[in-house]
Amino acid sequence: MVYTQQEHATWRKLYESMLPQWDRCATPVFLSGVHKLALAPDHVPQLSEVNARLAPLTGFQAVEVPGYVPAVEFFSHLKSRRFPTVTSVRREDQLDYLPEPDIFHDVAGHVPMHTDPVFADALSSFGALAEELHNDEQVGGAIARFFWFTIEFGLMETDKGLRAYGSGLMSSFGELEYALHSPEVARCPFQLSQVIETPFEIDHFQKRLFVIEGFDQLYEAVNELRIQFAPLGLGQEKHQAST
Ligand SMILES: [Fe+2]
Known about the structure:
The protein has helices at about 5-25, 30-35, 45-60, 70-80, 105-110, 115-135, 140-150, 165-170, 175-180, 190-195, 215-230; strands at about 60-65, 80-85, 155-160, 160-165, 185-190, 210. By secondary structure, the protein is α/β, with parallel strands linked by helices. It has one domain (about 5-230): Phenylalanine Hydroxylase.
């Protein structure tokens, strides 16, 4: 993929504006992921470079897609440890908020998390479950809400205090600090039953977020979901990272 100087400049502005916030607000796993991927501050990365560092760690790969892909395809990719990745760069007038993914959201927001073995297991396991269930009328909404309040907007209690790991927060200059510090946001302990029943809206900052204690909890939550929907004929996944 060839990028213009303007696109490299947009990436640089985004990276420079987010880096100090990541230091203050991101979970250590995310910061370590940025380091492991050696994301460049001054130019848009090529997926081949990112994947050369990522794949040996967890088997995940970022695969290029033109934009939104159908849900079944998206979840199938996750199951197989492929993350559908948009490679276009947002316009300069969309630096802070973007209604659809771009490479900064996907590569700088999501992919650093895929360097962690437990998170990677949880995401892949979620993909397998979601691929089977997303079309079910009763369950599809629960699947979407789970993804939203964890992968996109999740918070985590760490030994450095409350931090964020959700990619929607990691790629938003305005919302990351807001999510952690604004008195307008309710930060609730992660309860699966609450998470899958909490509606979300995509066009404004989130007023209710959920806090996990670690990525093992996320993995177990996927298994809980699986068990909850066991009447639909699903079994339990084995946790690869701990074996
Ligand atoms: Fe995303």
